[in-house]
Amino acid sequence: MVKLIAIYKQPEDPEQFDEHYFNTHTPLTQKIPGLRDMKVTKIVGSPMGKTDYYLLCEMFYDDHESLQAAMKTDEGKASGKDVMQFAGDLVTLVIGEEVHVEKVH
Questions:
Q1: 40 near 56, Cβ under 8 Å?
Q2: CA 36, 16, 91, 71 torsion-angle sign
Q3: What are 14-49's pLDDT values in tens digits?
Q4: Which residues lie across from 56 on neighbouring strands?
Q5: How far is CA 60 from CA 12, 25, 71, in A?
Q6: Vertex 58, ends 86 and 62: CA angle to 5°?
Q7: Secondary structure of the chain as H, E, C letters
Q8: What are phi and psi of 27, to 5 degrees?
């Protein structure tokens, strides 16, 4: 499983960010072909207290080829264009592969 991870810094106006993210951006992203799952986490702090981060979104794909194909679709391009317009200065995008580790007892 491969995931595209979007990490957002604290927006100046969280209410306005949430309005656009959940009502415009999320529905656009959910239409991307090949997207298997999408998990959004609101960052509420860190072990040291405050954090520069606000939101994390994990978008799951079967493999790297599926992710690359998805980004080339009209839906993928629409989602990418939207994120750059409303949060281009806040978002960092990374690609990850899930790694399973044995739990140490």
A1: yes
A2: positive
A3: 999 999 999 999 999 999 999 999 999 999 999 988
A4: 7, 41
A5: 28, 16, 13
A6: 125
A7: CEEEEEEEECCCCHHHHHHHHHHHHHHHHHCCCCCCEEEEEECCCECCECCCEEEEEEEEECCHHHHHHHHCCHHHHHHHHHHHHHHCCCEEEEEEECCCCCCCC
A8: -60, -35
For the entire predicted model, the pTM comes to: 0.91
Look over the chain and give the mean of its residue pLDDT values, rounded to a whole number: 96
Q: By the 8 A CB rule, do 39 and 58 touch?
A: yes
pLDDT, tens digit (0-9, with 9 covering 90-100), for 72-81: 999 999 999 9
65 is written with which tokens? 């080829």
